[in-house]
Design a protein that fits this description.
mainly alpha
Length: about 325
């Protein structure tokens, strides 16, 4: 028997109504300070929500506050056989911590769903991979046994490992490299998490080493899966020093782009150097006029205009 039923067949079937969608609230009684009972969800709420999910319409999953209501949503989605609905409900339940920090309970339920539903013929392979990866993450969280990581996303767990276990080698449970390999975290995601974690911790040496490599001749080259202008902007937002910013800006191959970013971020040394190499005395003079008199960058511009040879910009007046 196919798990996928026609829309009208499912919504009109008594089996679906009594088994998948029929449940009571697990909280009853009176509201504090009031004599009338607390409002409970009606049985129609769950099937209506499921129908909206299946048809791709907007719906509010937050209306389902009780554990039984959330379980009813999941059971109903499995009974329908709609993979998108199942994943949507899983994501919602993960966000609201359906079972608190009970990783064992959540792991058991998702594993059962993978076995009973996602192993069926015709199931979307990508959806099955997503659920399998989530099971591996829950297994990792269970082995780590750190309550602050329960029900956290893969990238949040990676950020924790980068901040607290950066120097642990591959193969160790808490190593960032181990988690990346297990969860198949992309290189772009890895670079972005490491950049943000260590920049916020002011570990600038780690940030710089992440994106620089030595070639066969001992020269330092840039290596990143993130666009260079994005790295520079993010470093500036996270209060990186001008020396580090200048190092990255100097890696931009396009002179015009390098000059624009240096002006935007006020890395004056790069602007002065670039204008000098362009032999643009007029532009450098105008730029000096925008600087604070007698400041370090003002003096640098003045010395460059006055004595380009000692400033290593000997081509300025050719």
């Amino acid at each position: 028997m196919s798990l996928v039923m026609d829309d009208d067949d499912y919504w009109n079937s008594s089996d679906a109504k009594t088994k998948a969608l029929n449940f009571d609230d697990d909280v009853s009684g009176k509201c504090l300070g009031h004599d009338k009972p607390e409002r409970i969800e009606t049985e129609e709420t769950v099937p209506v929500t499921l129908k909206r999910l299946v048809l791709g319409r907007n719906c509010s999953l937050h209306a389902h506050r009780t554990l039984k209501s959330k379980t009813g949503l999941l059971d109903g989605a499995v009974a329908i056989g709609d993979g998108n609905a199942i994943l949507t409900i899983y994501q919602f339940q993960h966000q609201v911590k359906m079972q608190g920090n009970n990783v064992d309970g959540l792991l058991k339920k998702i594993t059962n769903t993978l076995t009973n539903y996602f192993d069926q013929p015709g199931i979307d392979v990508n959806q099955m991979k997503l659920v399998s990866a989530y099971i591996k993450l829950l297994e990792w969280q269970k082995c780590v046994n750190d309550p602050q990581l329960y029900n956290k996303s893969t990238l949040r767990c990676l950020a924790h490992c980068c901040a607290n276990h950066w120097h642990e080698g591959a193969g160790k449970m808490m190593s960032p490299l181990t988690l990346c390999q297990q969860q198949q975290i992309s290189l772009v995601q890895y670079d972005w998490v490491v950049l943000n974690v260590h920049a916020k911790l002011k570990n600038w040496d780690i940030v710089e080493s992440l994106f620089t490599r030595k070639d066969w001749f001992g020269r330092s080259t840039l290596s990143s899966h993130i666009p260079l202008n994005v790295i520079i902007t993010r470093l500036h937002d996270l209060k990186a020093g001008s020396t580090l910013l200048a190092n990255f800006i100097n890696r931009i191959s396009s002179t015009d782009e390098r000059l624009d970013i240096a002006k935007q971020l006020k890395i004056h040394s790069i602007v002065i150097e670039t204008l000098a190499k362009q032999r643009d005395r007029s532009a450098l003079t105008n730029y000096q006029m925008t600087l604070k008199p007698q400041s370090e960058e003002y003096v640098l511009a003045e010395n460059t205009l006055r004595n380009p040879v000692s400033s290593n910009y000997d081509a300025l007046f050719e």
